Amino acid sequence: MYPFTFTTARDTRAALEAGRNGGRYIAGGTTLVDLMRETVERPGTLVDISPLPLRFVTVTARGGVRIGALVTMTDAAAHPAIRRLYPVVSAALELSASAQLRNMATIGGNIMQRTRCTYFRDVTAACNKRDPGSGCAAIGGFNRTHAILGTSDACVATHPSDLAVALTALDAKVRLAGSSGTRSVAIADFLLLPGATPDREQALRPGELITAVDIPAHPRPLRSGYLKVRDRQSYEFALAAAAVALHSSGGVIRTAKVAAGGVGTVPWRLSAVERHLIGRRPSTRLWSSAAELAAEGAKPLTHNRFKIELLQRTVERELRIVGGTA
Amino acid sequence: MPIESPVPAAGEEYPAGLSRRTFIAATAAAGGATASGLLAEPAEAAEAAENGRVSLTVNGARHATTVDNRTSLLDLLREHLGLTGSKKGCNAGACGACTVLVDGRRVVSCLTLAVRLNGADVTTVEGLADGDLLHPLQQAFIDQDALQCGFCTPGQIVSGVGCIREGHTGSREEIREWMSGNICRCGCYPKIVRAVEQAAGRK
Amino acid sequence: MSPQPQAAVGRPVSRVEGRLKVTGQAKYAADQTASGTAHAAVVDSSIARGRITGLDTAAAEACPGVLRVISHRNAPTLPYLPNRGSLNLPGERLHVFQDDRVLFHGQPVAVVVATTLEAAQHAASLVHVQYTAEPSATDLTSAPADEPTTYARGDAAAALASAAVRLDLTYRLSRMHHNPMEPHAIVTRWDGAELTVWDKTQWVQSTRDELAAVFGINPASVRVISPYVGGAFGNAARCWPHATIAALAAREAGRPVKLVLTRRQLYFGVGYRPAYEYRLSIGSDLQGRLTASVHDLRSETSRYETFAERGVLVPGRMLYTTPNVTQSHRTVPLDVNTPTPMRGPGYSTAAFPIESAVDELAHELGIDPIELRRRNEPENDQASGLPFSTRRLRECYTVGAREFGWNRRNPKPRTTRDGDWLIGMGVATAVYDTLRAPAQAHVRLDARGTAVVESATSDMGPGTYTSMSQVAADALGIDVPQVTFRLGDTTLPQAPVHGGSLTMASIGSTVQDGCDRVRQQAIALAVGDERSPLYGADPAAVVVYDGRLHVKGDPARGETYRQLLTRNDRTHLEATGSYTPAQSRASMHAYGAVFAEVAVDARLGMVRVRRMLGVYDAGRIISPKLADSQAIGGMVGGIGAALMEHTVTDHRDGRIVNANLAEYLVPVNADVPALKAIYLNGRDDQADPIGVKGLGEVVLVGVAPAVANAVFHATGRRVRHLPIAPEDLL
């Protein structure tokens, strides 16, 4: 680990000031400290933002939820309003990492999480994300766990967050504070496709700080859930995952929110699946015909072709679990 | 199973289930729910050096020390405070052997920077027994033979203490899931589950 | 002499060192924190083959706290004397920092010694190494092989050609890493020419002898201490290059050095279970009686040493009645580090193809897999011609089938469903050698009636401390808490490697012998002592129980050790026990039948083990509570081998791409459901004086094929490689 200076920000202004001067924010630290130890990350200054007043969950009258950036994964998952209103969020969180890591990691940090791509984590390997222009060792290497959606010639690394998949499905927004004020960015715009610049992962301006995540209100009743397929039953990243939220009335699906994890360079919104569902009556056939659209545009690599079928089946299964077979 | 989510009462607000420390931080910052309120005091002067002072409590004893900013809580415990019970299995948050309680919550000490722990209350495996009287979970590990080589055991036990406190002991299946952050390569899992059950039952 | 009452052996005694382990007081190698100890961090090569052309250490040396940076540029020439006694292999072990050659990805190329761990690790990352890379080969399937080891009986080719049923199958087994929770760690300290080492090792003597040979010093000048080992499963039997690095670093830095390998470095700094390609042809008649088998194996080894597992060929020769057998095993030298035995070495590898193929044959013929195995149960060892000492495999199957509910299994695959899950049951045989080796133990019984028993063996988790205390307690006639067993120190009496399931048989028999001697000394003292109630008694009629000697059948006539020794002004009695295995006139193995029930998600391919049962014929069970844990642990290891463990090499440059515990998956608690083990009551008196056959290895063998066979039964899909992944079953 490279040496660094350390400062604790007692308030938001101090944090932004430190951030503007090149300081790197640290909250739970579960990703950052790990990557610093691998020398993938080499910040000169760490700014501890844990004293900031960002540990809150508020619920709006219509059923939207604002989650402060420093709420831990544990607390967010267990929060009664989140459990009740957005089980997909609680499930995605509780299927992530381990109890210990969820006690440390925060909501803001979770969506800032960096990829598990082995070549990214190994500083002796070529990686455009870590070292722009050095190439991508994963494309011709071992890429079973890599992305099939949203990839580019420069990068095929999978976005690791489960939470971000649920948030993507729910049209969540990321609230940001910067020296010029605050703004709100849809999570789908916040997490960037790799394109030719995979080192740029979020639409953050220099020194900007995530303060909260807003989940907008959705029509009620909303049924939702998260399914994660992996090699072992716990403490592992997804091979494929599906976040599904459905609202029906009069026996017809009116709102469908579907996103996939473990398969994209960013959480992958399945708009074609959603369009197919809306206006139709739930049925086993509908789930499977909708799920067939899940892997549209997928580009498999040497070792992850199976993810196309696995994704479709994962989406189909979770549609059935959430939507029922009536 | 998905849960039907009714609309909550207007203005309903929940403090998240926060630990004591975080709750203090949260309450101290009333009105700070939005980040636009940039009314705060100026930042404390940044520590220019690559070392920091930290004052914390470990197993009831106060320690004030200067640490390299890079030093993890695990290395502070092991290399500086002589508390080698917490183990370094992977140093990357992937095994749980270094699990300790910080302010009552189980965390992996390998990914916790010591310099961040000013005022923290840390409990390690060495701090669980009451003199010669073992903690019920320590005794349960012996009774159930929930250990073989013993290397993951301190982390398993501290994690189990956290698991019991959290109330995730409703069924064997629940214990299995909530104890999955602690790898045991000797394969003692069924017995670890029984030990957690045994100790949870005595609460 | 009268047999001693059995009070401790066979009883469910709790682990005697349990208290130290649950309180964090047990000191493993890295827990040694002597003041003044410097920390070392190793720099690894980032190519698999070639030469080091540049090595810039200036930035590293400029780091505050750095004491030394050692590489081939400045390291002294080390003698590296021959040392074949310590599990070194044919070829020549890796010499660290002696030249510019790189033989595998991750080879140590430099070491940094610094006053703090943080400084050492950071400085190591600043050492800039330049290489001239040469094309490397790391793929077992495509590289040229060595000359084979062969075996033949009968005419397998002809028998296969005329067999009523013939199966030609190819199986692939992935490289696996032991991944004990404790990383390899070593603390080295020189006092003049004397070297003291705290090591993680399954054999203190192997570290001692290897370091003595490498540094060209007398083994008596090296002391190795290793009281606790945080799991090893075979990978801490040999002394690996990092031990030399630590000792060299301590010598160069002039102070004690601690070196703990990172988890990543465990994937190339120490050995692993090699990958195999196993081609198997079997022929049988229509009743399922095997007529021929042909085994063609390839396995990986390094370019500098040849690792050829003997055990991998044994089951193919002796497990089932087969008149015609040929075997050929070729090692394939690659630009990799050297493999090493891993739990159930060879046998567990062979069990996957053999037990899968037998299952395939049973399915082909419509015969129950257990019945097919019964039809091929041999009457003697067809490879050696020797009778079996004990072989109760039929009983294992009978008991197992009954306890597991095998009769509820619909023989037709893919017929049992539970919602989205396909349910299947599978079975496989387990077998492992009963190995024994010469050993010594010192026993000292003091006047308080407590005993200290010592042998330079090890306890990597199975419970050596406990089981030896049980043997000693009964042999001395005292309670387990009165016994202190010491191990893990080269100053103690000589012991063999703690591996191959030979510890209980070898050290146990030694401890028994030493304690018998001491007890007999006490009895002789008593019957010759006019003041003793036992004066004049027949020594052969005296037994000791609860620390009291008495005439068998007349408990009133006797006295305690304390009374006897105190009266005779004896502070203690002592003896050295020894054990030398007799020439075996029988084929000796431990056996087991392993049953697995799995659920496979019909659409998503996820495999979940629902329950397992192992029934074992392992001879006498000394410590049932701990033996049960061993068996459960073996099953957990086997679940890992079956469903997740796989070291992945990028063959472009020999890099291991999943060298961490987040991507090299081992089972977690959620993966492990109800597991049960049953040991058949009994003993094997031909095996060794205490009647044990060893159990730590056999409990892993057969688990993976039982799971694979259950997956076939659940899905109708036969997967002939390990691990079985979701994509194999979509």
Automatic annotation (TrEMBL), chain A:
UniProt KW Transmembrane helix keyword: no
Keywords: Oxidoreductase
InterPro entries: CO_DH_flav_C (IPR005107), CO_DH_flav_C_dom_sf (IPR036683), Diverse_Substr_Oxidored (IPR051312), FAD-bd_PCMH (IPR016166), FAD-bd_PCMH-like_sf (IPR036318), FAD-bd_PCMH_sub1 (IPR016167), FAD-bd_PCMH_sub2 (IPR016169), Mopterin_DH_FAD-bd (IPR002346)
GO molecular function, one term: oxidoreductase activity
Gene3D superfamilies membership: 3.30.465.10, CO dehydrogenase flavoprotein, C-terminal domain, Uridine Diphospho-n-acetylenolpyruvylglucosamine Reductase, domain 2
Record-annotated FAD-binding PCMH-type domain positions: 1-220
Name of protein: Xanthine dehydrogenase YagS FAD-binding subunit
Annotated organism of origin: Actinoplanes lutulentus
From TrEMBL, chain B:
InterPro entries: 2Fe-2S-bd, 2Fe-2S-bd_dom_sf, 2Fe-2S_ferredoxin-like_sf, 2Fe-2S_ferredoxin-type, 2Fe2S_fd_BS, Aldehyde_Oxdr_Iron-Sulfur, Beta-grasp_dom_sf, TAT_signal
Pathway terms, separated by semicolons: Alkaloid degradation; nicotine degradation
Gene3D superfamilies the UniProt entry points to: 3.10.20.30, [2Fe-2S]-binding domain
CDD domains: fer2
Pfam family of the protein (one): Fer2_2
Record keywords, A-Z: 2Fe-2S, Iron, Iron-sulfur, Metal-binding, Oxidoreductase
Residue ranges occupied by any 2Fe-2S ferredoxin-type domain in the UniProt entry: 52-128
A molecular-function term among this protein's GO annotations: oxidoreductase activity, acting on the aldehyde or oxo group of donors
Keyword Nucleotide-binding tagged: no
NCBIfam families: TAT_signal_seq (TIGR01409)
Protein name per Swiss-Prot or TrEMBL: Xanthine dehydrogenase YagT iron-sulfur-binding subunit
Protein's organism: Actinoplanes lutulentus
Automatic annotation (TrEMBL), chain C:
Stretches assigned to the Aldehyde oxidase/xanthine dehydrogenase a/b hammerhead domain: 23-135
Residues in coiled coil: none
Cross-referenced InterPro entries: Ald_Oxase/Xan_DH_a/b (IPR000674), Ald_Oxase/Xan_DH_a/b_sf (IPR036856), Ald_Oxase/xanthine_DH-like (IPR016208), AldOxase/xan_DH_MoCoBD1 (IPR008274), AldOxase/xan_DH_MoCoBD2 (IPR046867), AldOxase/xan_DH_Mopterin-bd_sf (IPR037165)
GO molecular function, one term: iron ion binding
One Pfam family it belongs to: MoCoBD_2
Protein name in the entry: Xanthine dehydrogenase YagR molybdenum-binding subunit
The organism of origin for this protein: Actinoplanes lutulentus
